[in-house]
Amino acid sequence: METSLFYLVNASGGIVLFYLVYWLFLRNETFHAANRWFLVGSLLLAILLPLVPVRYEVLIEASEGAKTGAHTIADTFKNIPVFKGAEESATTFGWQQAILLIYLTGAAIFLLRLLTQTAVLIHLMIKYRVTSLNGMRVVENEKYGLPFSFFNIVFINPKFHTQDDLPEILAHEKVHIREHHWFDLLFIELLTVIFWFNPFIWMFERAIKQNHEYLADKGVLAQGHTVGRYQALLVNQLMGMQIIGITNNLNFALSTNRLKMMTKKKTSAHRLIRFTWALPALALLLFAFAEPNYRMQELNETEIADQETSATKTLKISGLVVDENDEPLPGTSVVVKGGTTGCVSDLQGRFTLEVPEKTAIVLSFVGKKTIIDDYMGILSGKDGEVYKRTYKMEDEIIGIGLATELLAVNDNDKMAPPPPPPPPPSNDEMFYIVEDMPNYPGGSEALNNFVYKMQNKLASAKNIKGKAKVLFTVNAKGEVSDIKIVEQDNDAAAKGAYTIASEMPDWVPGKQRGKAVPVKYMLPVEFK
Length: 528
Fold this sequence. Notes:
Immunoglobulin-like, alpha+beta, elongated, five-stranded mixed sheet, 21 strands
């Protein structure tokens, strides 16, 4: 779901950027045919560029010296004991689901609007039948007074025009049909269903329709019709109203600017250079949507020789890494257990890694439970044989342990931080790619001070006693969100714990490969 939301946001940014180029540099020029191609082409680029980003390679250097699993905890939290817990099984309705529901509701409404308008026109064609007039397919109806074209069919109302007006009306609509303006309309109408929330998509729609009318006006006058008579015909249609969004209407965007455009001097050809303003916009989008391909630094000759000595055969692992919702998890670190060989999953969550025979691999991601795939350690096969594996990274809840004894005598004194936990006994020195865990402003000591002061304040002011555990997420912006009470002695303790979490200042968010990611924490509190 996050991938879809990111795509809509990125594509919307491209739509905004290209429309600004059109509005600032092209809308008053008489290159109507070129403007048509720009409007449609820039929309295509805006929706396609986020799907096919430019790739660039990033070389990851192995850190000096071997590290243990304890090194995966950020330095800020070296003094805070860490434990893993299971998240509540019940699913909750979060902000992402709310946004998705709002978006789908809007898209459904505008899709229904488009289908309804199309159904109305099809009903008119069935009811009044399509006839031939001056070599064109025409539907004479009594529902709409304003002439308009739909695909290659012209809709007119005999009650609202005279026979003398027909040549200009049919000539106007014939240009729309001959130049296939219906394709532009169908394309932009479908995009308004998808990007209905973006006001610039509606500006694009108006610009495309207005440019169609410029082209049709130019086509009518090129056939020898007089400017004055044709303008008078358009003015007579001012009282008509545009009803169907997917059609070309005779009086659309009828203003002094449209009337002036008919007699405006043709823009000099050298002003075509204005279209080059699209190039900086294109370059900016390519830069914004570019995606890195991470690659581990190649081993030197000594390291390669060491590996070849320890394992004569290598197996190729073709893996897919997903999160709890089965969405791809790009940027996941994958390394050989006890070694320095590794790689990173790509945008689709896939990776390929060659590992020595009978070794395990380790997958890690900030805020997710580390996976050690010992199954790889029992595999034996032909040299270079490929094994396909899928890994699901589950959320990890980081428990924050606080000091139980306070050395301060009042709220103005500084609280002593809890003693650091002893390093876990282990003879196996392992290399893990270290990423950044969230950082509370001021570190663990500041976090302890904040919690204890809040506990004392609430216990004194509201006479709260008891224990509670509060689960919260430090999101990609560093904000404390998704606050839940998972354990409580009483309602008062639960409300106090919720208050402590909700009043926390913003953290420095955790990062995986330089990209901010959400991380979950569990905080126990006790009111005395």
